[in-house]
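USER:
I would value a second opinion on how I read folds in token form. Give me a protein, with the fold worked out from its sequence. Write it directly below this note and I will take it from there.

ASSISTANT:
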Amino acid sequence: MPIGVVLRRAPGVTRWVPWVWTATGILPGAGPAEWHELRRDGDTVEYHAATLTLELHGAETEAYLHGLSAEVPSLYVVMRETGGDDPLDVVLVTASPYEAQDYTDSGEEIVEKVAMPAGLVAWVHEFIEEFHQDEVFVKRKRDKKRIDLVQDGIGDPRIGKAADIYASPSLKRRRLQ
């Protein structure tokens, strides 16, 4: 599904950060756009920065289910700073909180959480109902090798002589007496 990303540029609060960029909204089913100005209020401007495709994968339904069970179901917008005319490059829009977490680990990308509209929540929920399969818990069984057998005291056959075998200090004292 095509998703438009709305970014807001607001004046920074310090002299070292002239502008603060935040993802403030998404536009489900949006057409193509490249930094189209939507709204201006003084120095604060909102842009329809990009339109990306939201792809859902059957193998990630557990992550989507986790995201929908949050207090506010959200999409995650992944952005990178650029040195060009556009200050940010919108890289990805995902419904998976696990995938968003992977992008935050590097520290090079900016990940913003944006609330999902009700229609998009229903669309993701339908996808989960169609493709989600619970993993069946399978308890591991022990190997068939018997571990309760008594050793005959011979030790490891790779060791050539008795002096090479570890012995506790009390056992060594008994041998020396």
The chain has a mean pLDDT of 84. The helical segments are 61-68, 97-106, 118-131, 169-176. The CA atoms of residues 1 and 54 lie 5 Å apart.
